[in-house]
Design a protein that fits this description.
About 35% of the residues lie in helices and about 30% in strands. By secondary structure, the protein is of the alpha+beta class.
Length: about 400
């Protein structure tokens, strides 16, 4: 006989944990399944904008995040071909009512760990590792999942299922949904490295503009660990990419400066989106629904805001304060925001970093130089993240108090 659940979330990354916590805080029975043995620690998203921090605050996890994260207040655009650095101070662009006048830097696996700790204190939540979903069927009232577990195959029947299992989503595949869009030809190599970048003149966040050696360099947490992400020839195998790390590092770190590579992960980046984020009683969020390149830090930002909208609306439906049409609105609005805001901006940031035309690079450099003291420029990331959050009114207008 199948086990009965209210909500099953497939995929225990940050987005899955946030949806689960939001639902469990409403007293809803929620089960989180993942095929891995535990939270995956790999170099992925690491920058959280002020709007994201406000959402983490609402879920009661912000103090733990602030305790481990590094508060970044400045961004530098670096142009090595002319030796110019243009810096922006976030403090000059604080918006009225903005609670957190900084970005916070720490690994997404650390966010997942913080949220997991809070989730498992609640009586309505369970997290089950080494549980791989292999089948999915649904009727008008339930979703039936086939699950491979350490104890053998079993079935779980849930009122609702949420797929947050990443860009290679099993849930999306079982729904028969394509992942429309394109894959960038180069590979992105994300590395965590111990080195004193501050001594080398780097700011806490750096965008290195170069047609070949473009990169994002950002401090991680409160220690001396930094993220250095750069582009690599997509035709190479992973062993060759790993062997070439020191060669790439020479563009950013002098040969005389000691460093230690802690982690390195080459991965393909996409600009892709599912055609639907809801199929009856199954919903998608985060990278399972959409994926973009990491150059603007907008991928996980969008996923966190998916989670924020979804746990509120699904909770309202389960508690009888809204009808199911609000979930259609969730699906349509979050898809629109990704296609109209997230992905276009992420593509713009990537193309700006690796612009091949010298005249265009000079033009962009002039624009940045003139904008250096403009508060609107310092506000840009916060404004974009607010647009990604969307207008809560259309999403919540059918919710009854």
């Amino acid at each position: 006989m199948a086990e009965q659940r209210d909500v099953v979330i497939v995929g225990a990354g940050p987005v899955g944990f946030l949806v689960a916590l939001g639902l469990a805080r409403q007293g809803i029975d929620v089960t989180l399944l993942d095929a891995a043995e535990g939270i995956v620690n790999s170099p992925r998203a690491a920058i959280y904008f002020p709007t994201t921090l406000e959402l983490l605050d609402r879920l009661g996890v912000i103090e733990d995040c602030l305790a481990i994260g590094y508060r970044c207040e400045r961004l530098a655009m670096r142009y090595p071909e002319v030796g110019e650095v243009i810096a922006f101070d976030y403090q000059k662009g604080v918006l009225p009512g903005q609670k957190y006048p900084f970005n916070l830097h720490f690994g997404q696996h650390e966010l997942a760990g913080v949220v997991s700790d809070h989730l498992q204190r609640l009586p309505h939540a369970r997290v089950q590792w080494r549980h791989r979903v292999t089948g999915l069927a649904q009727d008008s009232a339930h979703v039936l999942l086939d699950v491979e577990t350490p104890g053998g195959p079993r079935q779980i029947r849930a009122r609702w299922v949420v797929g947050t299992d990443g860009a290679r989503s099993t849930v999306r595949h079982l729904l028969g949904l394509p992942f429309e869009g394109f894959t960038w030809p180069e590979r992105f190599v994300a590395t965590n490295v111990e080195v004193d970048f501050r001594k080398l003149g780097y700011f806490d966040t750096n965008m290195v503009v170069d047609p070949v050696n473009w990169a994002v360099v950002a401090r991680l947490g409160k220690g001396n660990l930094w993220r250095l992400t750069y582009g690599e020839d997509g035709r190479l195998d992973e062993a060759t990419m790993e062997a070439r790390i020191p060669e790439h590092y020479r563009a950013f770190i002098p040969e005389t400066e000691p460093y230690r590579v802690v982690q390195a992960a080459p991965y393909r980046c996409h600009e892709r989106c599912a055609p639907r984020f809801r199929v009856d009683r199954v919903l998608l969020a985060g990278d399972a629904a959409h994926a973009c390149n990491p150059c603007g830090g907008l991928g996980l930002t969008t996923g966190v805001m998916d989670a924020n909208a979804l746990h509120q609306l699904l909770g309202a439906v389960i508690h009888g304060r809204a009808d199911e049409r609000v979930l259609d609105h969730y699906a349509e609005e979050r898809r629109r925001i990704f296609l109209e805001i997230t992905s276009p901006n992420a593509q713009h940031f990537k193309k700006q970093l690796s612009e091949p035309d010298p005249a265009r690079r000079a033009e962009q450099r002039d624009i940045m130089r003139k904008a250096m003291d403009d508060p609107a420029t310092a506000q840009m990331a916060t404004v974009i993240s607010q647009r990604i959050m969307g207008d809560p009114l259309p999403l919540g207008q059918a919710v009854r108090a």
